[in-house]
Automatic annotation (TrEMBL):
The lineage of its organism: Eukaryota, Viridiplantae, Streptophyta, Embryophyta, Tracheophyta. Belongs to the IAA-amido conjugating enzyme family. The keyword Protease does not apply. It comes from the Eukaryota. Residues 389-512 form the GH3 C-terminal domain. It comes from Vitis vinifera (Grape). This is Indole-3-acetic acid-amido synthetase GH3.17. The gene is GH3.17_2. Residues 287-374 form the GH3 middle domain. Keywords: Ligase.
């Protein structure tokens, strides 16, 4: 029987393609077992697997002995191959190239080894997408399609192997040139292309002399421009799931209501699943795992607090692998809403992809997932941990406030600014007006409300830190000039990302990247939330047994925070340390006034017996009026 890892599919034969899909998903269990078996028997004698299995290819042993790895664990092996050592360190099949992923390791793109068979599997995957699209959209075999294909220069490694992005590799292959194709483009790259058109249409029109294009491009607004320029367009194939979801309004603005189709979920290391209902709303998109692409395992992930170490795939009793369809038996028990982190087993063996998926159901016996986020994309100042999805939700809520005023949020990113104490979240927002006006900023008060709404929409730990612990300062939005995120993308591309695979990082760590953003800031606004109602006008009595020593210092924050932190500063001045718990202890309405507080005598006394690290008592007398 031919290997199910190497199937082929004729993209012109819809019926056969759909039958194959039925077969694979119905027999997901069997297919997965075959795949694992094939991987193990083929690779048992690689240096890597020998180290754990001593030449055996037993599945139970594999589950017991072979560790789950991150990129850093396998990097030395990959580097050896890049430096000219033989493929069999990790793969029985010759490694033909190294694929550069958008994930980075030590500032460099990760390198994923790939084989000729991998390329064929990708071709199979693409070919299978075509009957699925044909099932839902008529006439795709007639007329034209427009594809935006981005490729990047390749780098040759010391061994002579090419290192390049997965799509560059695919587009340059004969498989692509000789076949039909759908393709993978992330919303950010797609919008970049539209933006390019928006910025350069005059020049393009002067070259091709077309009145129609000129007329449309010169219209009042670019709303619906795609439909206007290409009236027969049936859909836009663009990935709008996961963090790409934030582009949906901008895409809708340009597209004039065309369906946005996210066809697949894929990465440099493996292509995972396809969207079997391509016309569904972006928020409803689930990807169905194709069980022949690799062997898949999943780790249960707990929201907010990272992952649970226990692996919950079929081998919870490790010798019993006969329940593969229950890829993760918990899927059957708990079914929906389980958050899982995928592991991919190919020649890299139990590689943690870092993607968090949510179970949405099954198609036949193949699990379906919603892409949630990449692991570890978090903002954190204190005990708060904000992940990409939380941030997206909060930003989505906040940006609704802008829409009635004709502003669209086109891009955002964030970073945890700890240069001031307490640290605070900074969001960079790039805005666009509806219509053709020059960009002007929204009203300051609305932006303040946006800050507050983001804070309100973040999780309870964040709010507690802000409201009660005062261990996070007010959230800040920095509005940046149009084109700033293009500059950020250019920077990332210059650092090794590929245009095609580029996704705006939702959290920036690189100082250089922050500098790029900061140099284009046109306005800054801070949240005022939690200032009112929490802190004091009349202070009754303050506290005992306080042990916290987080430091709160004033930042350059608009009132009433300055005032509130002035209070903190006084305490700081008196005792050499400041108090971040004041918000907890001072109750009462805030009365806004002048910053008279600085000039008053210190209001707190400190029992020094607790030493520098603890504050045991602070007395504030009733008559100590604190006006802020
Ligand atoms: P790369 O390693 O550069 O090939 O990027 C692959 C990563 O892109 C995956 O691990 C996901 O985090 C993300 N990704 C791929 N497909 C999708 C999708 N359909 N929706 C959301 N994110 C995706």
């Amino acid at each position: 029987m031919p290997s199910r890892m190497l199937l082929s599919c004729d993209p012109h034969d819809n019926e056969a393609g759909l039958m194959l899909l039925e077969d694979l998903t119905t027999n997901a269990n069997q297919v997965q077992l075959e795949v694992l078996e094939e991987i193990l028997t083929q690779n048992a004698n690689t240096e890597y697997l020998r180290g754990y299995l001593d030449g055996h290819s037993d599945k139970g042993l594999f589950k017991k002995k072979v560790p789950i790895v991150n990129y850093e664990d396998i990097k030395p092996h990959i580097e050896r191959i890049a430096n000219g050592e033989p493929s069999r360190i990790i793969s029985a099949q010759p490694i033909t190239e190294l694929l550069t992923s958008s994930g980075t390791s030590g500032g460099q793109p990760k390198l994923m080894p790939s084989t000729a068979e991998d390329l064929d599997r990708k071709t199979f995957f693409y070919n299978l997408l075509i009957p699925v699209m044909n099932k839902y959209v008529d006439g795709l075999d007639q007329g034209k399609g427009m594809y935006l294909l981005f490729i990047k220069p390749e780098i040759s490694t010391p061994s002579g192997l090419m290192a390049r992005p997965v799509l560059t590799s695919y587009y340059k292959s004969s498989n692509f040139r000789n076949g039909l194709s759908t393709h993978l483009i992330f919303a950010s790259a797609f919008l970049r292309a539209i933006k390019f058109l928006e910025d350069h249409w005059r020049e393009l029109c002067s070259n091709i002399r077309t009145d129609f294009i000129e007329f449309e491009c010169n219209g009042e607004s670019w709303e619906g421009i795609i439909k206007k320029l290409w009236p027969r367009t049936k859909y836009i194939e663009v990935i709008v799931t996961g963090s790409m979801a934030q582009y949906i309004p901008t895409l809708e603005f340009y597209s004039g209501g065309l369906p946005l189709v996210s066809t697949m979920y894929a990465s440099s290391e493996c292509y995972y699943g396809i969207n079997l209902k391509p016309l569904s709303k972006p928020s409803d998109v689930s990807y169905t795992l194709l069980p022949n692409m690799a062997y898949f395992e999943f780790l249960h992930v707990q929201k907010n607090n990272g992952e649970v170490t226990q692996q919950v795939n079929a081998s919870s009793s490790s010798s019993d692998l006969s329940h593969m369809p229950h890829l993760c038996p918990a899927l059957h028990v708990l079914n929906r809403k389980n958050l899982l982190q995928s592991l991919w087993v190919g020649w890299l063996y139990r590689y943690r992809t870092g993607d968090i998926l949510m179970v949405t159901g099954f198609y036949n016996n193949a699990p379906q997932f919603r892409f949630v986020q990449r692991r570890n994309v978090v903002l954190s100042i204190d005990t708060d941990k904000t992940n990409e999805e939380d941030l997206l939700k909060a930003v989505t809520q906040a940006k609704l406030l802008l829409e009635p005023y004709g502003f669209l949020l086109t891009e955002y990113t964030s970073y945890a600014d700890t240069s001031s104490i307490p640290g605070h979240y900074v969001l960079f927002w790039e805005l666009k007006t509806r219509g053709n006006n020059d960009l002007s900023e929204p009203d300051h008060t609305i932006m303040e409300q946006c800050c507050s709404t983001v804070e309100e929409s973040l999780d309870s730990v964040y709010r507690r830190c802000r409201r009660r612990d005062n261990s996070i300062g007010p959230l800040e939005i920095r509005i940046v000039k149009p084109g700033t995120f293009d500059a950020l993308m250019d920077f990332c591309v210059s650092q090794g990302s590929s245009v095609n695979q580029y996704k705006t990082p939702r959290c920036i760590k690189s100082k250089e990247a922050i500098k790029i953003l900061d140099s284009r800031v046109v306005g800054k606004v801070f949240s005022k939330r939690y200032a009112s109602g929490v802190f004091l006008a009349l202070v009754p009595k303050i506290c005992d047994n306080l042990t916290s020593r987080s430091i709160s210092l004033p930042c350059s924050i608009a009132s009433p925070y300055i005032n509130f932190f002035s209070l903190t500063l006084i305490v700081e001045t008196c005792f050499g340390m400041s108090l971040h718990f004041l918000s907890d202890k001072f109750k009462g309405p805030i009365s806004r006034g002048k910053q008279r507080f600085h000039k008053q005598k210190p209001i707190c006394s400190w029992n020094k017996s607790r030493g520098q690290h603890g504050i045991s008592q602070i007395d504030v007398k009733e008559e100590d009026k604190i006006e802020v």
